């Protein structure tokens, strides 16, 4: 398995992953809208009356918290202990685990499985992506749905953009530049944080761009059928689980 997916690599790559409280402050605002979009898709394509959901790469649990209002038997998994720590502090009602989406086996399956917020994009090697889809399949009931939101195209490259933001009461100029690793379908985000009153920080984040066609191939190999190609205003991809999953017994990493 690829080292770039390890906890240390992720924390080194991004200030927001070294300091999950900052991540929560910047990212949790969209949770209500994201959860509503997932519920609408799962209602349309998933089992009637579904009440179970697994959020893979759940971060601090902000979206999961919203989803748990609808899916009473819900759980979340994230690689970073700091993310799960915040989830447990702020959202103690949620069932969350520290675990790697390539290997975790909770020993039960769900009617809805989500992997959103580009969590899948942190896996850049085909073997790792394959392993993640096996995890999705291993936790999804036949006829259940898998909802993915990940990078599907490269944004404009090599142009720097600076914006001013406030984090934890501090102002910062944040300059972002996207480049492409020519050897792989990998998008490199270089993000420089220039704070008023603390040391600057630079993130170098490598994420895999996975077209809908590529997602479809990985999903098909794991036993899912694509049911909802992306359209103009919706950036989630949805799959239905074809048959009984290979649900191996096992436990979470903690
Ligand atoms: C940008 S955050 C998105 C969090 C949440 N899904 C959301 O939409 O707010 C991406 C998350 O993916 C998690 N992640 C990355 N690689 C992972 C892996 N191999 N297994 C589980 N989680 C992973 C990161 O720790 C991070 O919390």
UniProtKB/TrEMBL annotation:
GO terms for biological process: methylation. Pfam families: Methyltransf_25. Gene3D superfamilies: CAC2371-like domains, Vaccinia Virus protein VP39. It comes from the Bacteria. Keywords: Methyltransferase, S-adenosyl-L-methionine, Transferase. GO terms for molecular function: methyltransferase activity. The keyword Transport does not apply. InterPro entries: Methyltransf_25, SAM-dependent_MTases_sf. Residues 54-144 form the Methyltransferase domain. The keyword Signal does not apply. PANTHER family: METHYLTRANSFERASE, UBIQUINONE BIOSYNTHESIS O-METHYLTRANSFERASE, MITOCHONDRIAL. This is Methyltransferase type 12.
